[in-house]
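note to self: dont lose this again. the chain is below, predicted strucutre after it. 150 aa total, dont forget to put it in the shared folder this time
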Amino acid sequence: MAQFEVEVELACTPTEAFEFLTRPANIRLISPPQIMLVFDAAPERLSLGARMDFRVQAYGVVRSASHEITVWEEQTRFIERQVSGPMGAWEHEHLFKQSPGGVIIVDRIEFTPPGGMLGLLVSERKIRESLEDGFEHRHVQLENHFGIPK
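---
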């Protein structure tokens, strides 16, 4: 599986960041507008076993996916895993660590590109580029919301 990891430091507590990022409505707000994220079914707040059914636009095509929360450590980390969707495999760990200025949020993603014809178009490199762009946007939105440690 391919791996991608990125982090951002914010001027808030780990609890504040955790609470914000466990609400699908907030995820939609900080996602790049061009992916047109729509949750078809999701709880107000995530928890162990919660499922999110959503659609995103990627590479000019709308794709549906379902993710389930498979690991839940309140205020510390959670993992969402693709149950169904276009990727061969997808697991996203959200980790919240105390820092002198607030919190460091680490996002670790392990993925396998899609198979078949889609896999010929959507390579690991393209997925990495999309993740880099997406998290750059997301981090700017989070910094605007919570501030940057001084």
